[in-house]
Amino acid sequence: MTAQDDIKAHLLATDEQFRQLAHEHHEYDEKIQKLEAKHARTDQDEIEEHRLKKLKLHLKDQMTEIVNRHKTQHVA
Protein backbone atom coordinates (compact mmCIF):
# COMPACT_ATOMS: atom_id res chain seq x y z
CA MET A 1 0.00 0.00 0.00
CA THR A 2 1.44 3.38 -0.99
CA ALA A 3 1.34 6.56 1.07
CA GLN A 4 -1.30 7.84 -1.36
CA ASP A 5 -3.43 4.75 -0.69
CA ASP A 6 -2.99 5.26 3.06
CA ILE A 7 -4.20 8.85 2.77
CA LYS A 8 -7.21 7.80 0.68
CA ALA A 9 -8.10 5.08 3.20
CA HIS A 10 -7.81 7.59 6.05
CA LEU A 11 -9.98 10.12 4.21
CA LEU A 12 -12.59 7.48 3.40
CA ALA A 13 -12.83 6.73 7.10
CA THR A 14 -12.78 10.31 8.37
CA ASP A 15 -13.91 12.78 5.69
CA GLU A 16 -17.59 12.76 4.72
CA GLN A 17 -17.06 14.90 1.62
CA PHE A 18 -14.30 12.61 0.33
CA ARG A 19 -16.41 9.54 1.09
CA GLN A 20 -19.38 11.00 -0.83
CA LEU A 21 -17.20 11.90 -3.82
CA ALA A 22 -15.69 8.39 -3.83
CA HIS A 23 -19.17 6.86 -3.72
CA GLU A 24 -20.37 8.98 -6.64
CA HIS A 25 -17.17 8.20 -8.56
CA HIS A 26 -17.83 4.48 -8.09
CA GLU A 27 -21.46 4.88 -9.19
CA TYR A 28 -20.40 6.64 -12.41
CA ASP A 29 -17.80 3.94 -13.03
CA GLU A 30 -20.45 1.22 -12.79
CA LYS A 31 -22.77 3.09 -15.17
CA ILE A 32 -19.93 3.57 -17.66
CA GLN A 33 -19.05 -0.13 -17.50
CA LYS A 34 -22.68 -1.07 -18.21
CA LEU A 35 -22.76 1.24 -21.23
CA GLU A 36 -19.44 -0.11 -22.51
CA ALA A 37 -20.70 -3.68 -22.16
CA LYS A 38 -23.74 -3.10 -24.38
CA HIS A 39 -23.51 -4.90 -27.70
CA ALA A 40 -25.76 -2.57 -29.67
CA ARG A 41 -24.84 0.97 -28.64
CA THR A 42 -26.80 3.95 -29.84
CA ASP A 43 -25.60 7.49 -30.40
CA GLN A 44 -27.39 8.37 -27.17
CA ASP A 45 -25.36 5.70 -25.36
CA GLU A 46 -22.16 7.27 -26.68
CA ILE A 47 -23.25 10.73 -25.55
CA GLU A 48 -24.22 9.43 -22.12
CA GLU A 49 -20.92 7.58 -21.74
CA HIS A 50 -19.00 10.74 -22.63
CA ARG A 51 -21.08 12.78 -20.16
CA LEU A 52 -20.53 10.26 -17.36
CA LYS A 53 -16.79 10.13 -18.01
CA LYS A 54 -16.58 13.92 -17.72
CA LEU A 55 -18.51 13.86 -14.45
CA LYS A 56 -16.34 11.02 -13.13
CA LEU A 57 -13.17 12.94 -14.03
CA HIS A 58 -14.49 16.04 -12.26
CA LEU A 59 -15.07 13.96 -9.12
CA LYS A 60 -11.57 12.50 -9.36
CA ASP A 61 -10.14 16.02 -9.62
CA GLN A 62 -12.05 17.03 -6.48
CA MET A 63 -10.82 13.94 -4.64
CA THR A 64 -7.23 14.64 -5.71
CA GLU A 65 -7.56 18.19 -4.42
CA ILE A 66 -8.69 16.89 -1.02
CA VAL A 67 -5.80 14.39 -0.91
CA ASN A 68 -3.28 17.10 -1.80
CA ARG A 69 -4.74 19.47 0.79
CA HIS A 70 -4.49 16.68 3.39
CA LYS A 71 -0.83 16.07 2.45
CA THR A 72 -0.05 19.78 2.73
CA GLN A 73 -1.73 20.12 6.11
CA HIS A 74 0.07 17.12 7.56
CA VAL A 75 3.51 17.95 6.17
CA ALA A 76 3.55 21.57 7.31
Number of helices: 3
- In total, the number of domains comes to 1
Low-confidence stretches: none
Given helix and strand content, the structural type is: mainly alpha
Q: State the helical fraction.
A: over 70%
Give the overall shape, derived from the CA principal axes.
elongated
The total of beta strands comes to 0
* Approximate strand percentage: under 5%
Name the average pLDDT: 95
**How far is the N terminus from the C terminus?**
23 Å
Q: Let me know the largest β-sheet.
A: none
Q: Rg from C-alpha positions?
A: 15 Å
The SSE order reads: HHH
What can you see in these coordinates?
The chain is mostly helical and 76 residues long. It has one domain (3-75). The protein is built from three helices and no strands. It is elongated and about 50 Å long. The mean pLDDT is 95.
Short synopsis of the structure:
The chain has 76 residues and is an all-alpha fold. It is built from 3 helices and no strands.
Keywords:
0% strand, single chain, mainly alpha
Give the SSE map.
Elements: H1 3-14, H2 16-37, H3 43-75
Helix pairs in contact: 1-2, 2-3
